[in-house]
């Protein structure tokens, strides 16, 4: 057995990509192909790839990318988005993941990225590195027959227009950008993302079926206010249709657009079940149905995890629900976010500076991450033992300041062939 101290943790070179891709595929139960190497190579120029190497053998993978995150109030912060993390089963419990995380977070801190984000495939892994769950996600299955929507009521879907992939691609990115500007938890979707989502990337799989695409055009202005991508499968049983429909992306900048697009999906001919993934738990969509109980939650989970690296910059960037002031003593074993910080903020902006005053609250960097976008409350975190109220009233003040009227949401879309509840 190789001593873990001599296993090399380093930036991946082009020569390393085949071995790195194979190790990542093994970790995620995906078959190795030359095209998968080409896909990784096509993004390597804008990604940071790290690998763990035991002599000439890759035994660990890690990727981070430059991203942007919308925070409460509409500010956009640069973040490091982490993905493709794996350690070979033959090399676990040797600290390899810890070394890769430490290398990447130090690099993010030095690049001036105040936050790091990831979608945690396993809950227990990332809290030890200062990440905390910052958004949640609900998956719904909608029983069409119980939804009490009459497909003959075309007024319910007025403004919905079916389009092809090319027309969709011309309009959809601008719709998403309008949502991203105001949605806490939203990440950037770049040009390559949209090419992949619409099957327009030249190197894409040739046999991949094209989804259906729809836009919502405001009847009064003619402006596109929503977008919908879905796939469906014609299925029959005993001369009765039993077709499922899978929504892959649904984005809207108004409740009217959101309602019309969902109502359209639920009234497509022959469809008996609509699968609706990746929604905020407080989504309004079930209430757009004639019977909201027709939308059953099939999965409910934490989703995007967040790690604060620059406390004053992160806390100064967002707005707060009420005017208030807090002194926060933040512990961080890695040191990036640690300190005693004076936060003053409100609906119009905030400032955060280091202070020598005594704290109102003591909390770890993981709990601060869960508070940051407004999805959790200081009172809940204190009940779990991770946050300590030093001055009476500080928990209630923190709740009033950090919580948002609607839960943060990080919009996701199903791009690949896999479509199952809870899949990252």
From TrEMBL:
Residues covered by the N-acetyltransferase domain: 7-156
Gene3D superfamilies: 3.40.630.30, SCP2 sterol-binding domain
Entry-linked InterPro entries: Acetyltransf_17, Acetyltransferase_Eis, Acyl_CoA_acyltransferase, Eis_dom, GNAT_dom, NAcTrfase_Eis, SCP2_sterol-bd_dom_sf
PROSITE patterns in alphabetical order: GNAT
Pfam family, one: Acetyltransf_17
Keyword Transferase included in the entry's annotation: yes
Active-site residues, record numbering mapped to chain: 126 (proton donor)
GO BP annotations listed: aminoglycoside antibiotic catabolic process
Keywords (A to Z) from UniProt: Acyltransferase, Transferase
Chain residues that bind acetyl-CoA: 85-87, 93-98
MF-aspect GO terms: aminoglycoside N-acetyltransferase activity
Source domain of life: Bacteria
Similarity section: Belongs to the acetyltransferase Eis family.
Complex and partners: Homohexamer; trimer of dimers.
Protein's name according to its UniProt entry: GNAT family N-acetyltransferase
Source organism per UniProt: Streptomyces actinomycinicus
